[in-house]
Amino acid sequence: MKKVVALLSFFISLATLFASAQQVAFTGYDTLGNHRAIIEVNIKSDAVLTHIPWRRRDLPLEIINILIFDAQTGERITNLIRVNINREFGEIVFQPQTVPGKYYVYYMPFTKKGSYYPKVTYNPPEETASSNWIKKNNIKTSIDKFPRAKFVNLESKDKFNTFTPMEQIATAAEMEKLLQDNTDKTLLVFTTDRKFPIRMTSNIPAKWAQEGATNKFISNADKGEYFTFQLGIYPLKSDLKGIKIQFGDLNGSDGKSKIPGSALTCFNLQGTDWDGKPLKKTVNIEAGYVQPLWIGIDIPKEIKAQSYNGKLEISGKGSEVQSIDITINVSKNLLGTRGDNELWRHSRLRWLNSTIEENDNIVKPYTPVIVSGNTFNILGKTLKIDSLGFPESIRSLINYELTGIDYEGREILSSPVSLVITKSNEEKINWKNRRYDLVKHNQGVATWEAENISDKLLMKVNAKIEFDGYVEYKIKLTATEDLNIEDIYLLLPFKEDIAKYTMGMGCQKKPGCDLAGRCKCWNSTTYVG
Fold this sequence. Notes:
Layout: H1 29-32, E1 35-41, E2 48-52, E3 67-70, E4 76-77, E5 80-85, E6 90-94, E7 101-106, E8 110-113, E9 119-122, H2 131-137, E10 148-156, H3 172-180, E11 187-193, H4 206-211, E12 216-223, E13 226-235, E14 241-247, E15 250-252, E16 258-259, E17 264-266, E18 270-272, E19 278-280, E20 291-298, E21 307-317, E22 322-334, E23 370-372, E24 375-378, E25 381-385, E26 391-398, E27 405-411, E28 418-423, E29 432-441, E30 445-453, E31 457-466, E32 471-479, E33 485-491, H5 496-499, E34 502-504, E35 518-519, E36 526-528
Parallel strand pairs: 2-10, 12-22
Antiparallel strand pairs: 1-7, 1-10, 2-6, 3-4, 3-7, 5-6, 8-9, 11-13, 13-20, 14-21, 15-16, 15-21, 17-20, 18-19, 21-22, 23-24, 24-25, 25-26, 26-27, 28-33, 29-30, 30-31, 31-32, 33-35, 34-36
């Protein structure tokens, strides 16, 4: 059964720089931002220089404001000059008020509008330094003369907003060393534990640059766990096309037990599609960019607790084969949930390949599909089709609060759904039904066919409704004679108070679409929530 419910288908830290998961008081963070640097001033001076190694991934920095506050008084420092701002670091000259003292540098202040779906924008730079202070300290000519404020660390508002090591970019010097150490290679492979998922594709994280590319991956797992980890593929000289991964068996240290290579998969390259069919994908990687690849290992619950060792090989057109040694230390602990209840394990990735309920069986608390003539009843909804096989009425009995049944119900459509075709003279084609058949009906699904004709066109309609509210249409048009067609569009006439809850079909708030009328933005599905 389809997983999409629709009405119509058409993160150790770089210890010297970052403190992880700080619980700090961010007064006014809604405007000051979620991130700040802490610096200390111990030398009394009218102007001091601070160097903040923030390793930022965001762009462009020149349009983002920087605010400095005296931690003791809470007062904002207005005499400051941004002298060198780039992605690796920021250098700022400012006028300290409390010496010795601590200062907070908010380097990502923003403005937020809205509540449920807020729009957040970075605040632009402000010129607040007095001309007299700038001139007195001759700031714009030389900064080396100024005393240095001590950088302490970077803080985030909370754990959720803390930048992980995978979000801290490598410096140009680190990247140069990394490349010099690997001049004989066409691509680099980085392995990363599921605790440190890849966050950047256009930058190498500092963690990787400092550790270097590796041909080993070692981690711990539990019995019965669906274990995941990542590979980061980084082509150096040219694009890598048609990447392939070959998995070998993981052999136990006892020389007897093993995890077969068939228990390993790369979700980016293969799997099961939404229709339950085998899926294979071609992945090409542009030189200078990181391609994350998620790897899954299905660890049996009855397996012996020990180390399991094996290899995987990575290759691509025009590239040498890279071999990665894998060691998984399986503990005596049995995970009855496969790890699905702990999100950091990313065990749920295997759900992508699930074929559960691909059959027609119903799932509680849903009820069977009931057919009465041209009317189909499912839990909380009724679909009535017209003589051409299209929805004439969609009626919902579910109340607005989604907490129960409203037996009076409400109509979703303002008029029947139709496929409208106009000729070059703007004349609409009229249809006449030639055949309608109920093809299949069981507890979980009902399917029907309709054949409609016009003077020069034949329309074949194949449709179905499933117990969860999924409706699918496949329409085939055949010209019986030459015909000039001006336009073809699907008319989805949702009532105005219902239309605002629709999404899909490329229709929401896009030119050429009327949420309460016709839609000319074709995709595959639409959803009414």
